[in-house]
Amino acid sequence: MLCPNGKYASQYRQKQEVLCAITTTACLLILSVPVTADEPGSNQGPDFTEYENAVEGGIRYLATVGQAPDGSFSKFAGTGPTSLAVTAMLRNGRTPRDPVVAKGLQYLESCAHQDGGIYGKGGMFGNYETCAAIMCFQEANTDGQYDDLLKKAEAYIRDVQWNESHDRESWDSYYGGSGYGGTTRPDLSNTAFLVDALKSRGVDENDKAIQQALTFVSRCQNLETEHNTTPFAAKINDGGFYYTPVVSEQDTDRMTANGGLRSYGSMSYAGLKSMIYAGLNRDDPRVKSAVSWIQKHYDVKSNPGMGSAGLYYYYNTFAKSLDVLGEDLIEDADGAKHDWRQELTRELMNRQQPNGSWINQKNPRWMEGDPNLVTAFSLLALSYCRPEFE
After folding, report:
1. Mean model confidence pLDDT for the chain
2. 304 class by beta-carbon count within 10 Å (0-12 exposed, 13-18 middle, 19+ buried)
């Protein structure tokens, strides 16, 4: 299994350049054709043509329906959906010269601020938006044209991380984490975005910000060790991850009767990925416990512990984390081995809408009622599932 930036990247990109030359009329005709997929329960994985049709359908949706005249994709969460959509297209073979991609990048450039952040009006989600924008511009930075923009953006996300510069010491539950904005409480989702963004910049695992983030990530794991002495770790102690150890009333839907914090899928994969990026290997007890939790809760039908909530965010994190883990097969609690790439691809194909988009029809929580955002998550997930082809 290869990703778009693997051995056959140049051939794939050339093929996508040809596909981009198809006229708008032809695209719209193809867009009306439903994507075919294997029947649920089939043991046969999707072939390359089926995979490519699903990806192309999603990209056509974004290009012909999703993008606004100014180049953005849904502004309800600032620049975040735009960065994710453009990154998804870049990771699936489009180049910065593609008109839709270029227009999206131009919009994102217009949202760069003097403080280095790249965010929409108000900047409520400044850290999240800038982290997503960094990963987008890093994918597009083929000839160094975004070097200065990226350098300033990296400085911005480093500055908003909770650490000594914000009067937080290493014992503090805030320490090492990042939230949506500079003054919001830290959480594992946004901290994982921080780590992802720094990693995309080529930052070493021993980088100070990465290691500070590891301190926070470790405190989000249901595992009682010297790395997590919070009151929550021992109450469940299953090796999975929760949203944040900085508890408030809004966490009550994630708490157990004994005051523990429930582990769930999207955060467990985000935690595992962040730990690997921070240099932990498979022998580390934290990684061992995380992998064990994933094996016990392997699922491509739902977000374990959350059901349909945040399902497509989960799919993206699931795929990226397992790709980083480097395992092609995951053995579940019953001893069955799963080719996660094939199974996730088939599941996403079965969920794709006739117009090429994806949407969380059962649960719009966390903005998954927006097809632009959900299509971006789906395409990003598929970029880690690409079948090998000659």
Report:
1. 87
2. buried
